[in-house]
Amino acid sequence: MLVLTRKLNEAIQIGDDIEVKIIDIDGDQIKLGISAPKTVDIHRKEIYQAIQDENNNAASISVDMIDLIKKNQKNY
Description:
Strand content: 25-35%
Shape: elongated
Subunit structure: Homodimer; the beta-strands of each monomer intercalate to form a hydrophobic core, while the alpha-helices form wings that extend away from the core.
Radius of gyration: 21 Å
Order of helices and strands: EEEHH
Keywords: Bacterial flagellum biogenesis, Cytoplasm, Repressor, RNA-binding, Translation regulation
Structural class: alpha+beta
InterPro entries: CsrA (IPR003751), CsrA_sf (IPR036107)
Strand order of the largest sheet: 1-2-3
Protein name: Translational regulator CsrA
Helix content: 25-40%
Number of domains: 2
Family: Belongs to the CsrA/RsmA family.
Number of strands: 3
Number of helices: 2
Oligomer: single chain
Low-confidence stretches: none
Mean pLDDT: 91
């Protein structure tokens, strides 16, 4: 992990397209501004993890469940 120290209104550059800037510091909270292409998804870590968990749960449907769905579709 790279650890950098930045002050208010200073930024870091990630590659050619992403800039992370310190917008505000209030006690133990820091507001970050992130400039990135619209094609780059940006989420808080807990939201990203929840999305990954949901995707993993959805992908782990058992073969039996898929077979049941196929069987029910044939009956219509």
